[in-house]
Specification:
With 148 residues, the chain is mainly alpha-helical. The protein has helices at residues 6-16, 24-28, 53-73, 84-101, 112-123, 131-140, and strands at 37-42, 45-50. Strands 1-2 form a two-stranded antiparallel ribbon. It is globular and about 45 Å long.
């Protein structure tokens, strides 16, 4: 049994992070980057915080839209928590798919906040992003294999 107190960790996390990044898993897995992200060490774990409220709210809206659109493609039941692997596919594949629709580099240098802002400039609002194209990138995204 683990010697960690998860409830105490969650409380410490909430007090340490003012703006939680919705793309934290993608950033920690290093499939994308974000110039608005700030990495913190908390209880021997890495956590990501956002440094700008507007960027965080735009990323949150994009994250929610990705979830709404990817539910069917990734076979996730409504009102069920997202399994880690499918969450990574939605986050990494979604950001890379948005980069591809904007004709940007979709590699590890895809910057989440920058891409969301450029998407808004091109499409007008997050709800108008070309989710059919972004979903293809999500479905085809393969997470990196586990280290053995």
């Amino acid at each position: 049994m683990s010697g960690y107190n998860e409830d105490a960790y969650r409380e410490a996390r909430q007090s340490a992070i003012a703006l939680a990044c919705p793309f934290e898993r993608a950033l920690l897995s290093r499939c994308v980057v974000c110039f608005k992200a700030k990495k913190l060490l908390l209880a021997e774990r890495e956590v990501i915080s956002c440094t700008e409220e507007r960027a965080c709210s735009l990323c949150q809206a994009f994250h929610e839209s990705l979830h709404d659109n990817a539910r069917f493609a990734l076979h996730v039941e409504p009102h069920q928590p997202w399994p880690f692997g499918k969450e990574i596919r939605a986050q990494c594949g979604g950001v890379r798919g948005l980069a591809e629709t904007l004709a940007k580099d979709a590699g590890m240098t895809a910057d989440v906040a920058l891409l969301v802002n450029e998407g808004i400039l091109k499409y007008g609002e997050i709800g108008r992003f070309p989710y059919s194209e972004i979903m293809r990138a999500i479905v085809h995204y393969e997470p990196r294999p586990r280290r053995t």
